[in-house]
Design goal:
mainly alpha; flat
Length: 312
């Protein structure tokens, strides 16, 4: 105890000092790696901003005309995947945590966790070889009956390898991530909150709406952002399923579909040479910035709810 403060200071043991130093070193190492990646991307991307557009594949008007459709395709495919995956993931996680019998919930939980371990190339093979041919007749029906709607404008793709097929594949890929995280979050809801809602006469769904979902909102946002990050960076599944074109189009069932930045890099990098390599790296820098912005937005959204805490 010190006379000035009157507080008792515990003596630091060697194990505590070692663990604290290791944790600090690990955090600093991550920042160093991130800074190194950013410096590499920026340094290698500078020539791409000054390149003659005639040296870029497709001979666009400028670098930004080249990367614009790629950015659109990346964001569009990821957004569609989230629209499909998030409601299903929330429903599955709520069923596992609050509706399913214990044994069934355990089995479903194991299945979801195993699905997250499936390699992306397997999803790509499934999407290109099974899903696309099977769903093509449905696309034809959509165009025939709802062709007046801009998203289903004719002509229809004859192979089924469209941006909507890619979105379905991506949704299946990110579904286990979002489901597993939301399930654990919902299971951590304070029992006092749930029992209080039920004691006041709320139904099970009203209890979930009033107690479970508000408590888990920051975690849901984090889970969705992790799934979005996976969808933005997915490469092989998109490259194997999509029939790409450098266009900006909102049509979901057409033969011309915008490709994504990772898939474009994977398809063109083996044959790239000279300044075109810098162009591909520059598109990677754009993806890096998009991902960083998405994660920053997620942290901001979570921080808005950090004051909420339940009575455990």
């Amino acid at each position: 105890m010190t006379a000035a403060t009157g507080r008792i200071t515990a003596r630091k043991r060697p194990g505590d000092v070692l663990f604290s130093g290791a944790a600090l070193a690990a955090g600093a190492f991550i920042l160093v790696i991130l800074a190194g990646v950013a410096i590499f991307l920026i340094a290698q991307s500078i020539p791409a901003f000054l390149i003659d557009p005639s040296e870029i594949k497709g001979e666009p008007d400028s670098f930004w005309a080249y990367v614009g459709p790629l950015v659109f395709g990346t964001v569009w495919a990821a957004a569609l995947a989230l629209l499909i995956a998030v409601p299903i993931a929330l429903g599955i996680s709520l069923f596992i945590s609050h509706y399913a019998p214990r044994r069934l919930a355990q089995g479903l939980g194991y299945t979801v966790d195993l699905l997250a371990a499936v390699p992306s190339v397997v999803f790509g093979l499934w999407g290109a070889g099974v899903l696309a041919p099977a769903i093509q007749p449905f696309y034809a029906w959509l165009v025939d009956n709802f062709g007046w709607f801009p998203l289903f404008a004719p002509p229809v793709s004859g192979t089924g390898r469209t941006i909507l097929t890619v979105a379905i594949v991506l949704a299946v890929m990110i579904l286990p991530i979002i489901t597993a995280l939301c399930r654990e979050i919902f299971l951590q809801t304070p029992k006092l909150h749930e029992e209080a809602a039920l004691a006041l006469g709320a139904t099970r769904w009203e209890m979930i709406k009033l107690a479970v979902l508000p408590f888990g909102r920051p975690g849901i946002v984090s889970a969705v952002m992790l799934g979005l990050g996976r969808a933005l960076g997915e490469t092989m599944a998109v490259a194997m399923v999509l029939s790409p074109a450098t266009v900006i189009s909102f049509v979901l069932t057409g033969p011309q579909n915008p490709t994504t930045i990772p898939a474009n890099i994977a398809l063109n990098y083996p044959e790239a040479h000279g300044s075109y390599v810098n162009v591909l790296i520059a598109t990677g820098l754009i993806l890096f910035v998009i991902t960083f912005a998405v994660n920053s937005a997620a942290r901001w959204a979570v921080a808005r709810r950090k004051e909420f805490s339940g009575a455990n």
